[in-house]
Amino acid sequence: MKVTLIRSAISLKRKKKLTLKALGLTKMHRSITVDEKNTAHMGMIKQVAAFVKIEEKA
């Protein structure tokens, strides 16, 4: 699955900013590819779901 940062992280609390950084989403409109089986990444994405766009790979 492809995850893209679509909203700015400026207004976020420190913990959520660190979550985005750990995912590799440091700048707007940057994307990462995540394996759906990795539960750690899925939990992190769930934490910041309001700020990212998730696209299923076809």
CATH class bucket: Alpha Beta
Specify the overall morphology: globular
Tell me the β content.
15-25%
Helicity level, as a percent range?
25-40%
User: CATH topology, anyone?
Assistant: Ribosomal Protein L30, Chain: A
The strand order across the widest sheet is 2-1-3
CATH superfamily: Ribosomal protein L30/L7
Termini separation: 9 Å
Describe the protein's architecture and organization.
- It is a single chain.
- The protein is built from 2 helices and 3 strands.
- With 58 residues, it is α+β, with helices and mostly antiparallel strands.
- The chain has helices at 14-23, 39-47; strands at 2-5, 31-33, 52-55.
- The protein has one domain: Ribosomal Protein L30, Chain: A (2-Layer Sandwich), CATH 3.30.1390.20.
- It has a 3-stranded antiparallel beta sheet, with no helix packed on it.
- It starts with a strand and ends with a strand.
- 33% of the residues lie in helices and 19% in strands.
- The mean pLDDT is 93.
- The longest helix is centred in the N-terminal third of the chain and has 10 residues, at 14-23.
Can you give me a brief rundown of this structure?
The chain has 58 residues and is of the alpha+beta class. 33% of the residues lie in helices and 19% in strands. The radius of gyration is 11 Å and the shape is globular.
Produce the secondary structure layout.
Elements: E1 2-5, H1 14-23, E2 31-33, H2 39-47, E3 52-55
Antiparallel strand pairs: 1-2, 1-3
